[in-house]
Design a protein that fits this description.
The structure holds 2 protein chains of 2 kinds.
Chain A lengths: L6 H17 L2 H9 L5 H9 L18 H11 L8 H13 L5 H11 L5 E4 L15 E5 L2 E12 L6 E7 L5 E7 L5 E7 L5 E13 L10 H37 L1 E2 L2 E2 L4 H27 L6 H28 L10 H14 L4 H14 L1
Parallel strand pairs in A: 1-4
Antiparallel strand pairs in A: 2-3, 3-7, 4-5, 6-7, 8-9
Helix pairs in contact in A: 1-4, 4-7, 5-6, 5-7, 7-8, 7-9, 7-10, 8-9, 9-10, 9-11
Chain B lengths: L6 H17 L2 H9 L5 H13 L18 H14 L6 H14 L2 H13 L4 E4 L15 E5 L2 E8 L10 E7 L10 E7 L5 E7 L5 E14 L3 E2 L5 H9 L9 H16 L3 H7 L2 H24 L9 H24 L19 H6 L1 H8 L9 H12 L2
Parallel strand pairs in B: 1-4
Antiparallel strand pairs in B: 2-3, 3-7, 4-5, 5-8, 6-7
């Protein structure tokens, strides 16, 4: 277990913090969220900093860094609430393609993604089915020169900016397979929207989308394993990002308590508020420990132990997200309710993290079932 | 759910487990695992066994006859001992006084006192709290008046854990009533056989005699028994409070209790069947498991930081005490009404003879564990310390 960041991880985190300070301040991000929801300039800078190449294998022009490196970068970026697809493309889609390196999709897209020239995003959720279903309603049917995709995906992150969607679908033997679908392909239509936290997503309809035979990503028929790995990495990423946001939220709250004066003194002198801030800190330190365990477990999720650790981590981090975000708004008083305070934006992202891929109660019950089975 | 240890730590843990399996007397183990009362000889005898193996002082450097273990090794040792059902080593001499003597004591104090602490030959207790000085320790009033080569000590200490067995007590006393509260305090070592000392039991809500009041009526204490300079006792006391790091989280105790909880759930009787069918109970157990994992990982993570412990001691104290309390609560609820008979005599050997008798101890244990968030600096005091560390 690596409990402390490596020198390289610290250096990249520092560089990302400088980027936030210079190019991605709260007001810049707020304006961006109200407008197009994506900054080509910021994406170019993130590319220069190596974020898009981080997890891409060397053979495809990447830096071949570890999952832990990617998660530490995501954690450092978290307070900026990036609207660009760092999570969806540079972590999740990149790992998915890298796990099928021999596929035509990986050969085509990974080098472009590494250079920041292409964006990919996983399309897995379905209305009514959710993420966990190993039996997606979306179907892929074989025909003479390839595949035909039919179905609908929901909550596809940054789909409106993506060049390629990585779509999970059921094939004839009921197994899960993965397909690279160009965003502009005939039969693909998007219904874009913003999420509670301002980042963009879309519902995607796939109506008779024709794909070439080599569009299938899981060339070795390991689509089920890819789904498991994707879910594990996503959980670990939510935990890592959550910790970065939680710390920023606490720091801002402490600063506010020391600044805001009532009854002739900073309200941070009041013991009830001091202890509340300490309770937030205690939650965060536990979440930080669990996020590190999750990062470690995400690379060996095939073991039942790993899956249980991930559920435990998501439950604990999610509980911290809920408590800390609620208390941060409370301790900011009326100001915490306003759109002009950054804490209200962190509150919304922390809420999204708590709900995404199953809320704390869902994961708590999964741990409970695991204990009974043990 | 377990955390992977580094190979050298895993090997160390294996060594500790093997030792415990061979050396821990079955009768002591049985009492510990059931939560029965331990006699003085149970605690002293176990310390002698550890000392004979060279492990009498796990937190000391080898220069003083300790094991020279790293902080991680110390934590793993405490944890394995607790899981196996070994009695806790008394912290008063080993973990509280000894580091103070190493830092502030005279050569003669170190030479004469440390060996008896490691071997268990001398039983120490702590004289800090007074009836009017709990969280506000610096307001203490026990007086020490200089009279030639002696101090004459008069006053009262309280909450003295296992003081009824003690050979020695280390005390904070007031040597200057005119200075500011923190600046008129000295740190004295007092022989409990001195004329003028009276020990009175305090019976706690679980019916046990664990703590005492100690009265000092013109007790003569040689000046050479002072540790550090006169009126510098507060510095010594703060050093002591800031140096108790290992074992503070009680991870091993929680793991032992968790195993016991699962034993109760696994029983073939109606009680076990009821618990296994209770989805809410399963979720409560899962939450405790998760919080235990978070505590254990947080403790390991914080041990990576070099240097003296800072606010993390307060953090681990709050988290660990609350977790132990929640577990004792769930254990009692698992036993239900069976936990309610109180103060019954247990089996002849001092340990329960039946499962039913084991369950009867859980109500008293639940009551006893409420102390954890009060002693050693109440959790509210710990949060005051943490708030300052946050910059509030």
């Amino acid at each position: 277990m690596q409990w402390l960041p490596s020198d390289e991880q610290s250096q990249l985190a520092d560089a990302l913090r400088r980027f936030i300070q210079r190019d991605y301040g709260f007001e810049q991000r707020r304006a961006l969220a109200a407008a197009e929801g994506f900054s080509p300039k910021a994406w170019a800078t993130l590319t220069e900093l190596g974020i898009t190449a981080l997890l891409v294998p060397e053979a495809h022009g990447g830096l071949n860094a570890s999952v832990q490196d990617g998660l530490q970068a995501l954690q450092a970026l978290a307070p900026a609430l990036p609207l660009e697809p760092v999570l969806a493309s540079s972590l999740l889609a990149t790992r998915l393609l890298a796990a099928s390196e021999a596929s035509a999709a990986a050969q085509t897209w990974l080098p472009r993604m590494a250079r920041g020239r292409a964006i990919a995003t996983p399309a897995v959720f379905e209305a009514g089915e959710g993420f966990d279903a190993g039996h997606p309603g979306t179907t892929a049917t074989r025909h003479a020169d390839g595949w035909r995709l039919d179905g609908a995906k929901a909550l596809v992150l940054q789909a409106q900016f993506a060049d390629v969607l990585l779509v999970s679908a059921r094939i004839d033997d009921a197994a899960v397979a993965w397909f690279a679908v160009s965003a502009g392909a005939p039969g693909v239509s998007l219904r874009p929207y913003a999420l509670l936290d301002g980042q963009r997503a879309a519902d995607v309809t796939l109506a008779g989308v024709h794909l070439a035979a080599d569009a299938r990503i899981d060339t070795a028929g390991h689509g089920g394993a890819l789904l498991e790995d994707l879910r594990a990495l996503w959980l670990a990423a939510l935990c890592a990002e959550g910790v970065g946001l939680l710390q920023a939220t606490l720091d801002a709250t402490v600063a506010y308590l020391n600044t805001r004066r009532q009854f002739g003194q900073p309200i941070g002198r009041l013991q009830v508020l001091q202890h509340r801030a300490v309770d937030m800190w205690l939650e965060i330190e536990q979440a930080r420990s669990m996020a590190l365990l999750a990062a470690d477990a995400s690379t060996r999720v095939d073991e039942r132990h790993g899956a249980c650790l991930l559920a435990a981590a998501k439950a604990r981090v999610g509980q911290a997200c809920r408590f800390v975000s609620q208390q941060a708004v409370q301790l900011h008083g009326g100001m915490g309710m306003t759109d002009e305070m950054q804490v209200s934006h962190w509150f919304k992202r922390l809420t999204v993290i708590e709900l995404w891929l199953g809320d704390s109660d869902t994961h708590l019950q999964q741990v409970a079932r695991g204990l009974i089975a043990a | 759910m377990d955390i992977d240890l580094a190979p050298e730590h895993a090997a160390f843990r294996t060594e500790v487990r093997a030792f415990l399996a061979a050396a821990l007397p079955a009768q002591i183990r049985r009492k510990m695992l059931c939560g029965s009362r331990l006699e003085k000889e149970d605690l002293a005898g176990w310390q002698r066994i550890l000392h004979a193996h060279g492990w009498g002082a796990p937190n000391w450097s080898q220069d003083y006859g300790g094991t020279g273990w790293s902080p991680v090794q110390q934590v793993l040792f405490d944890e394995e001992c607790a899981r196996a059902g070994a009695p806790p080593q008394l912290p008063f001499g080993l973990k509280m006084l000894a580091p103070v003597l190493m830092r502030f004591g005279s050569e003669a104090q170190r030479r004469t006192l440390l060996p008896d602490i490691a071997s268990g030959a001398a039983w120490w207790c702590q004289g800090y709290s007074e009836p009017g000085s709990g969280s506000d320790l610096a307001s203490l009033k026990t007086r020490a008046l200089r009279d030639g080569d002696d101090y004459i000590v008069t006053g009262q200490k309280t909450w003295t854990t296992l003081g009824q067995y003690a050979d020695w007590i280390f005390c904070l006393v007031r040597t200057d009533v005119t200075a500011k509260p923190q600046q008129g305090i000295s740190f004295l070592l007092i022989d409990m056989r001195s004329p003028g000392i009276t020990v009175r039991p305090i019976i706690t809500l679980d019916g046990e005699h664990e703590v005492n009041e100690i009265w000092f009526d013109a007790v003569r204490v040689p000046v050479v028994n002072r540790v550090g300079e006169e009126n510098q006792g507060w510095t010594v006391a703060k050093y002591l409070l800031g140096h108790e790091r290992s074992g503070i989280a009680g991870v091993g105790i929680v793991k032992r209790d968790m195993a016991r909880l699962k034993d109760i759930v696994a029983r073939a009787d109606a009680g076990g069947r009821r618990l296994r069918a209770d989805a809410l109970f399963a979720v409560r157990v899962a939450q405790l498991e998760i919080d235990l994992l978070a505590l254990e990982a947080t403790q390991l993570r914080m041990l990576q930081h070099a240097g003296p412990p800072g606010p993390e001691s307060s953090m681990l104290k709050v988290l660990g005490s609350e977790l132990q309390q929640r577990l004792s609560e769930l254990l009692m609820h698992a036993a239900g009404e069976r936990a309610l008979p109180f103060g019954l005599a247990v089996g002849a050997a001092g340990a329960p003879a039946t499962l039913h008798q084991e369950d009867q101890l859980l109500g008293a244990q639940y009551a006893n564990r409420r102390k954890l968030s009060i002693f050693g600096g109440s959790n509210e005091i710990q949060k005051n310390i943490l708030a300052r560390a946050l910059g509030l």
